[in-house]
Amino acid sequence: MSARVPRERPPRRPFPRLTGAAGLIPAAAAALVLLLGSPLAESGTGTVARSGPAPTAAAPLPAARPA
User: pLDDT grade, residue 62 (50/70/90)?
Assistant: First the structure.
């Protein structure tokens, strides 16, 4: 009979659950931003039609002289 040779085990990851959670946290945050909107968006900016005259462009500044 042949002698049984012990197989080497592959090295274990030290914290498999922690590394899995570290990947899920940014994915969950991105999903929340996509679903709820960015918390950094300014309030009042949107595609709501406003009544009143159209905004006009400001007058251009005079040409500056070289220093």
Answer: confident
